[in-house]
Amino acid sequence: MTVFHRNEKKEPLPEALKGGVVAIGNFDGVHRGHRSVLERALALAEERGVPALVLTFEPHPRTVFRPDAPVFRLTPAPMKARLLEAMGFRSVIEYPFDRDFSTRSAEEFVETILVDWLGASGVVTGFDFHFGKDREGGPAFLMAAGKRRGFAVTLVDAFRDENAEVISSSRIRALLCEGDVAGAAGLLGYRYTVEAEVIGGEKLGRQLGFPTANMRLPPETELKAGIYAVRFRRPDGTLHDGVASYGRRPTVTENGAPLLETFLFDFSGDLYGEVCSVSFFGHLRDELKFDGLDPLVEQIRRDEEEARALLSGVRPLGDLDAKIAF
Questions:
Q1: What digits encode the pLDDT tens for the residues 207-246?
Q2: Strands 259-264, 213-215: pairing kind
């Protein structure tokens, strides 16, 4: 799969990608609600024998309009692209979103992007998708434009969970803020997963007998500080169960920057510089401050035992989870 970055030089889209069915949206999280749109696009593309594409926007529009409060991304662009590839899309087109783009009319969006650049034969989006200056382009506008310019438009209703509640990225963020990674997984359809480079640390874990792979997550990450049962994936695809601590390490530092520290079970080796991913399977406990290192070591042993027990019985939530965390 290719990730195509559109820029203002208007470089042409590869011919092999033109004429496809295009799913449009931000799709942060690629959750079960998004997948009702995405799977419809895949099915239509297969039916018509054309490429299935995703048109998304980077950075997230809320980050552009509120740079002082950047949105907690469930899936930063590289992770989102991998999830979409795992679903079967030919290409992800990341269109730059800035204030200038936000002032363009809905008609210009249709003409310059959907028709002239993508040559879309079909567009699939959520029923509440709006675009163009002041959100002037809505479902009725898009359907009329499609009839006028020769592309089919499919609108997909909001997807609801088993309790008839709409699945949304904001609901999932709220669950992660509470440390409820199991609840978040139920809405995502896969285990919440982060990705970052393994960096050097203070090596205290090694001295305690629990060496950790340390990763710094984006500052806007709002995952609750605590201890989690996780699965760790290296770039070569190998998986290791583990227990991870996310937070400021109150026992060993006063005001440390948030850090994800993962102790990999039954592993020894050098991970520095590798870009790895961590999938969260369960929240074990909150972050605590211990009265010295000995009580901390005792608790880590209990955390390891609990994490091993939890991970021994896990099963994939579906095809996407199987590709991401198994």
A1: 555 689 999 999 999 999 999 999 999 999 999 999 999 9
A2: antiparallel
The model scores a pTM over 0.85: yes
How deeply is 238 buried, as exposed, middle or buried, from its count of CB atoms within 10 A (0-12, 13-18, 19+)? exposed
Question: Given this model, what pLDDT does residue 8 score?
Answer: 41
User: Is 1.10.3720.10 the CATH classification of the domain at 181-325?
Assistant: no
CATH 2.40.30.30 location in the chain: 181-325
Q: What is the DSSP annotation of 239-262?
A: EEEEEEEEE--TTT-SSPPPEEEE
91-96: strand order across its sheet: 2-5, 91-96, 52-58, 21-24, 122-126, 152-156
The sign of the torsion formed by the CA atoms of 249, 255, 260, 263 equals negative
Q: Give me the CATH code for the 2-156 domain, please.
A: 3.40.50.620
In b/e form, how buried is each residue of 277-307, taking b as 16+ CB within 10 angstroms?
Answer: bbbbbbbbeebeeeeeeeebeeebeebbebb
pLDDT band at 162, cuts 50/70/90? confident
Closest by CA to 154, choosing from 77, 48, 4, is 48
Structure tokens at 89: 């899309």
CA-to-CA separations, 175 to 29, 107, 168, in angstroms, rounded = 13, 38, 11
At residue 77's C-alpha, the angle toward residues 75 and 80, to 5°, is 55
Using the 8-state DSSP alphabet, how is residue 134 labeled?
G
Supply the pLDDT for residue 174.
97
DSSP for residue 216:
P
Mean pLDDT, residues 283-298 taken together? 83
